[in-house]
Design goal:
The chain is mostly helical and 288 residues long. The protein has 14 helices and no strands. The protein folds into 2 domains: 140 residues, no CATH class; 126 residues. The chain starts with a helix and ends with a helix. It comes from Vibrio aerogenes CECT 7868.
Amino acid sequence: MWRKVFKIIGLYSRERSPAGITLLISVLLLAPVIKHPVHPVVLFTGILSAVLMLFLIRLSDDLCDLGIDRIAHPERLLCRDQFSVSILKRCRWLVTGPLIVMNTVAAAHPVAMLIFLLSALLICSLFFFIKPWLPTLVHTALLNAMLGIFPCYAGVLTTGHIGMAHLLMALFFWLGSFAHDLSHSLLDTAHTPPGQLKPLNRFNQKTLAMTSLALYLLSAGTGYLLFHYQAVSSVFLAALGICTLVIIRLECALIRHPTRNTARPFYVWGYLFFLLPVLADIAFHLFH
């Protein structure tokens, strides 16, 4: 029985949350706000917890969108195997308990960590419960806001509190990921069959393109504030400046002609925009 459970989890992970990518993103979401050396147990707990939380967010979102995905993506595991759905639903609860216990033990301030985790789990559970009834742009914004949990979690894990740097990094990730979601989803609605239109494609595509540009610029501004408050290095700022120039160039083409071709570069650059500066900052602190 357990062998089959682990097999289903492995199949789902490879399809929707590859271990290597999830691990890399987890490190990038946590590392920028952990400036001082921490105990290896705390660091391991933080990275493992971030991986599990990213997995839970992805799984919960897929389970929430199951009705839509059965039409749009019938080839996915959850859409073609009801047994896998029931197993993975139980998996969420199996992961949650150990996640709370190991963080409460490893955290600098166990009570603060317990309150933070229970609050985050409650808010996320409530969001996924009401998501089907939320307007498209609202649930897209709130889903991306979940990336902001990770810098705040790192603060509670290592120091017991959430400071300005954690909040600004959370805002930086949220604005960048929200912009990414809007920009890479656009297409030429006039020449696309109605059955291929996603919820975001039912809005004016040029308006969404301009909105995504505004969000990228706000995220860049937040990145500058991180540098101003000495939360990140000048290397972070330089990498962010280069990424912002690339994004502006791509956005000009997207705003002129919102099509699948002009939106495609954002699949990669939308992520690189807020992950490359973080990677550069980590490398700077490791080798400086």
